[in-house]
Amino acid sequence: MRKAIREPKGIVQDSCNEDRTRVGEEEIFNRCRVFIRVWAQIWKYPGLEDTISFEVSHRLYRSIARVQLQKRIIRLSSPVSLDNELALREILCHEVAHIVAFERHGRNIRPHGKEWAELMRTAGYEARIRINPKDIGIKMPKTPNNLYLRKRYTYEHRCPVCQVRKTAGRPVRQWRCVACVDAGLTGELEITRSPTRLVQTLLRNCF
After folding, report:
1. Do 15 and 50 share a structural domain?
2. What is the CATH number of the domain that holds 15?
């Protein structure tokens, strides 16, 4: 008589936790598609919900959500859940409106310009640029102490026409110069990568 092979207890528990997490995320994604279907009717964009993919990120410490416009991927921070459905709806609408505005008007518009704002208002939301997680009852995870050590570069975004500069921890290619866009220009920014101050200090100490 063969003996049953038992997997270590820790492996079984980890597997169960992963399955529960996967089911929970899929439930969120299905609800997201339902919400988007309603806005698609308002915005006259049939089938919109089928063109967008979703992910849950455990690495979003400052942003509640992010969107990749060309790939049409929306990443939600891990604290976002169906327990706070009103917050989920506003966050999702904010990001989906970016996709629709980009699809209809291209890159030569402000990220939170009148095109995006009109979509938000017609969906029934205030067109606020930034959403404070605390205002909608979401507690963001703490930033790891070594997060800043992992960021070795900063990215300067400079307008070659009016020399306006903006710095970020990653290249943001959808940013545009507002003044140049208003003047009828493309407003495209030149991106330059530079070592962070911490990296510069470490290099000076090494040589």
Report:
1. yes
2. 3.30.2010.10
Phi, psi of 43 (to 5 degrees): -85, 0
In a domain, 142, yes or no: no
Q: Which residues contact 127 (CB under 8 A, 6 or more apart)?
A: 112, 116, 117, 118, 120, 121
Retrieve residue 118's tokens.
């009109």
Do residues 46 and 21 both lie within one domain?
yes
Same domain, 89 and 173: no
Q: Per the structure block, which two tokens stand in for 146?
A: 């070594």
pLDDT at 160 > cutoff 90: yes
Domain total in the chain: 2
Query: Which of the given ranges, 74-83, 89-98, 188-197, has the highest pLDDT on average?
Result: 89-98
**Residue 149 confidence class, pLDDT cut points 50, 70, 90:** very low
Q: Side-chain half-sphere of 192: how many Cα atoms within 13 Å?
A: 7
Q: Which two tokens stand for residue 179?
A: 């003044």
- Is the model's pLDDT at 193 over the cut of 90? no
Residue numbers of the domain that contains 69: 9-136
93 contact partners, CB below 8 Å, separation of at least 6 = 35, 39, 120, 123, 125
With 60 as the cut, is the pLDDT of residue 36 above it? yes
